[in-house]
Amino acid sequence: MTVTISRLYNSYDDAREAIRNLEAAGVAAGDISVVASNADNWYSENGNGRGATARDTTTRDTIVDRDLDGKDDRAEAAATGAGVGATAGGIAGLLAGLGIIAIPGVGPVVAAGWLVATLAGAATGGVAGGIIGPLTQTGLSKEDAEIYAEGIRRGGAVVTARVKGADAPKLQSIMDRSAVNVRERAAAYRDSGWQSFDPKAAPYTTDQVQRERELYTRR
Fold first, then answer.
1. How many CB atoms are located within 10 Å of the residue 89 CB?
2. What's CA 130's distance to the chain center, in Å?
3. 90: burial class by Cβ within 10 Å (0-12, 13-18, 19+)?
């Protein structure tokens, strides 16, 4: 039996850590998906425009970082004689098809993995409920899907993994290491006046995302 596990993270950096840990535990790249906010333009799909890394959000130089290791793939390729897209192992396989999708109420996201096709439908209005539909298809309740969607809108990331039922407890523990406590995050959102995810809401700006992340810096 296969089960699906999803977790919310404060940033793509935390999501990347979870993906690396999942792969180290034996989960195939084809069974992992990631959806990360690109509201602060940390990722440049084709190498044009600003592409700051999450490790240095003040950087203004364009980078191509398909393996999400915080380093420009072109520099890594030059050092090894390889081409961009073939510079590293790890999660590079998962992210080979990584691209940017604009989702109503969320804004631009960087996505990769098996969930991308459904997200593309949400971006074009082909999936009822926008991003909520794809998230509930991963097994999340509608209530949790709204919190996850709002988390992405505010600069976060979601990792979803399809795993064997027998392995689920161990892999859930691995994903929990850097994940957001969804119940606490939902309470914080509601304390600030948030009620539910609004697909018509304006996407967060770079400054708003940075302020939001500062509120929840892991200690």
1. 9
2. 17
3. middle
pTM: 0.78
Inform me whether the pLDDT recorded for 86 exceeds 60: no
CA 197 to chain centre: 17
DSSP 27: -
Identify any residues that bridge with 164 across adjacent strands, giving them in sequence order. 2
The two tokens of residue 216 are 């929840």
Domain range spanning residue 201? Answer: 2-215
Instruction: Read off the pLDDT band of 216 (50, 70, 90).
Output: confident
> What is the three-class DSSP state of 154?
coil
60-88 burial, b if ≥16 CB within 10 A, otherwise e?
Answer: eeebbbbbbbebbbbebbeeeeeebeebb
